[in-house]
Amino acid sequence: MPCHLKRNSSSTAPVILRGANTTLTVLPDTGWNGIKDNVQVYNIPKFDGHHGRPQPSVLAENIQDIEAFSRKCHTEVVEKLLRLFAILLELPDEDQLVRDHQYDVKGEDHLRYMHYAARSAEENKKVGELYSPGHTDLGTVTLLFRQPVAALQILNPEGQWKWVKPQNGTITINTCDALTALTGGLIKSSIHRVHAPPADQAHIDRLGVLYFAR
């Protein structure tokens, strides 16, 4: 949402979502307790020939590398995961899910550049120490490439939020809602949130690159 629309919006109350294992507080974009959201995102649709649009110069100058990275995320990671899921589910054809997620077919897969600006300790306290409340992703899987700043947490089956430690040379994978639907609930969406970093990292802006496979 553009900043001027956020400023003009009148909604300031948090939305409470209650589930079987937890209560999630969703902070509106316009802020809560006077604190504005601290996230900026920029999405780049997959290069399937159906989503052409002008890009900022810094991206346009590197668009071939960005496309190569986008395609590699899909073919080298997503497709291998889909084959693994098919094997685990004992599907008769291990390429079934791959055929349902072809890169060059029109779809909503996209890259996302994400920036969370650091907040003061006082600001974090006012918003429950959260950058982003608990949620699931809509697609099949999400790939997270992130800097080594502790912030991501996942909700375990006991209803406890656990830190997801960044590991060098790895990609964090979230399983998502579409995969849950496709597998009849056998593979469940990961409920995750972005917590304010620990005190020794709280002054660092959090950066991430994500690939959403839909």
From TrEMBL:
Transmembrane segments: none annotated. InterPro entries: IPNS-like_FE2OG_OXY, IPNS-like_sf, Iron_ascorbate_oxido_reductase. It comes from the Eukaryota. Residues 126-199 form the Isopenicillin N synthase-like Fe(2+) 2OG dioxygenase domain. Pfam families: 2OG-FeII_Oxy (PF03171). Gene3D superfamilies: B-lactam Antibiotic, Isopenicillin N Synthase, Chain. Belongs to the iron/ascorbate-dependent oxidoreductase family. This is Isopenicillin N synthase-like Fe(2+) 2OG dioxygenase domain-containing protein. It comes from Penicillium nalgiovense. The lineage of its organism: Eukaryota, Fungi, Dikarya, Ascomycota, Pezizomycotina.
